[in-house]
Amino acid sequence: MKEIDKIKHIPQPMRKDGAGAPDFGPRDVLRDLENPNILVPPKTDSGLIPNLKFSFSDAHMQLNHGGWSREITIRDLPIAKTLAGVNMSLTPGGVRELHWHQQAEWSYMILGSARITSVDQKGRNFIADVGPGDLWYFPPGIPHSIQGLEEGCEFLLVFDDGHFSDLNTLSISDWFAHTPKDVLSANFGVSKKAFKHIPSKQVYIYQDEVPGSLDSQEIQSPYGTVPKSFKHRLLKQKPIVTPGGSVRIVDSSNFPISKAIAAALVEIKPGAMRELHWHPNNDEWQYYLTGQGRMTVFAGNGTARTFDYRAGDVGYVPFAFGHYIQNTGDETLWFLEMFKSDRFADVSLNQWIALTPHELVESNLHVDSELINRLRKEKWPVVK
């Protein structure tokens, strides 16, 4: 009650037009303050759309010596069938152990730095350091590891399967633990004593020393390094800049190895919005990095619903549903939008009707030259 007493204005489920009534029963006022457009939906909302929001703050936290992880899968957000996400942190020296997945892994470094390693099916290796704004991508079945450097790190992992769970991956410690020692001995050509102290179960994340320089850990493969880099410097990429913000698009056209996931890093300044649009290739999985915003999703047949988002939230938009994201705060809103696709694609509502015969638009929407004269033939992903 003390927290509620500090709130000067307690929101009520009442619209300015008189719809609704006060709620004097048990309630979570702090939650209502975070979701004003769910408590009081815009008049344009209609019908029911499944939940399109889940916060990492509500996800199970897996704590290990060396770091932590939490995930949002179809278990937490049932509508999210195409992609799942993991938020992970590693301490300085903390290791996400040697492992591999049946799914592709796409990652965005939020803060700090890490060293990633991998070897492909032809014995070509890859060792690199990644920092804030960098991406990495490992194709399905390709083994890899992640280790925090001097300041540790936090990052987002995205996988191309909504059912994916990072706690149910293929790990080297788990395989060793479930292989007879005489088989290990025969495979590696050493005595069984060499495996006396191997872990008895999956290690997952563990604490180690901060690794030395890249040069000190370099290993030359007789087959060379991977031909397509597993790393991409997204923040170093030239953005598409508009008066309302910016967009950096990354897919297989500029990050060739990323065949299963395409993405965009979107900046929306206060008072601006990601324009009305939709995606013609797949569902959209979102991760909010900073700020706060709202999104209305239009599903057709008179159905639309509005959600509020803030840093740490995941949003979702089903295939081809119309939507926008509006900055509702006083700081810049940054978020990632991701797709199970090799290419990024979107359709702009503004551009569509700008390139359609004006007489047809006027008769269809009952609008006049005020709108027609302001339409843009060029796409502006973010508008102010």
From TrEMBL:
<feature type="binding site">
    <location>
        <position position="105"/>
    </location>
    <ligand>
        <name>Mn(2+) 1</name>
    </ligand>
</feature>
<feature type="compositionally biased region" description="Basic and acidic residues">
    <location>
        <begin position="1"/>
        <end position="18"/>
    </location>
</feature>
<feature type="binding site">
    <location>
        <position position="284"/>
    </location>
    <ligand>
        <name>Mn(2+) 2</name>
    </ligand>
</feature>
<feature type="domain" description="Cupin type-1">
    <location>
        <begin position="232"/>
        <end position="373"/>
    </location>
</feature>
<feature type="binding site">
    <location>
        <position position="144"/>
    </location>
    <ligand>
        <name>Mn(2+) 1</name>
    </ligand>
</feature>
<feature type="binding site">
    <location>
        <position position="279"/>
    </location>
    <ligand>
        <name>Mn(2+) 2</name>
    </ligand>
</feature>
<keyword id="KW-0464">Manganese</keyword>
<feature type="binding site">
    <location>
        <position position="101"/>
    </location>
    <ligand>
        <name>Mn(2+) 1</name>
    </ligand>
</feature>
<dbReference type="Pfam" id="PF00190">
    <property type="entry name" value="Cupin_1"/>
</dbReference>
<feature type="binding site">
    <location>
        <position position="323"/>
    </location>
    <ligand>
        <name>Mn(2+) 2</name>
    </ligand>
</feature>
<feature type="active site" description="Proton donor">
    <location>
        <position position="337"/>
    </location>
</feature>
<dbReference type="InterPro" id="IPR014710">
    <property type="entry name" value="RmlC-like_jellyroll"/>
</dbReference>
<keyword id="KW-0479">Metal-binding</keyword>
<dbReference type="InterPro" id="IPR017774">
    <property type="entry name" value="Bicupin_oxalate_deCO2ase/Oxase"/>
</dbReference>
<dbReference type="InterPro" id="IPR006045">
    <property type="entry name" value="Cupin_1"/>
</dbReference>
<dbReference type="InterPro" id="IPR051610">
    <property type="entry name" value="GPI/OXD"/>
</dbReference>
<feature type="domain" description="Cupin type-1">
    <location>
        <begin position="54"/>
        <end position="196"/>
    </location>
</feature>
<feature type="binding site">
    <location>
        <position position="99"/>
    </location>
    <ligand>
        <name>Mn(2+) 1</name>
    </ligand>
</feature>
<feature type="region of interest" description="Disordered">
    <location>
        <begin position="1"/>
        <end position="22"/>
    </location>
</feature>
<protein>
    <submittedName>
        <fullName>Oxalate decarboxylase</fullName>
    </submittedName>
</protein>
<feature type="binding site">
    <location>
        <position position="277"/>
    </location>
    <ligand>
        <name>Mn(2+) 2</name>
    </ligand>
</feature>
<dbReference type="InterPro" id="IPR011051">
    <property type="entry name" value="RmlC_Cupin_sf"/>
</dbReference>
<dbReference type="GO" id="GO:0046872">
    <property type="term" value="F:metal ion binding"/>
</dbReference>
<dbReference type="GO" id="GO:0033609">
    <property type="term" value="P:oxalate metabolic process"/>
</dbReference>
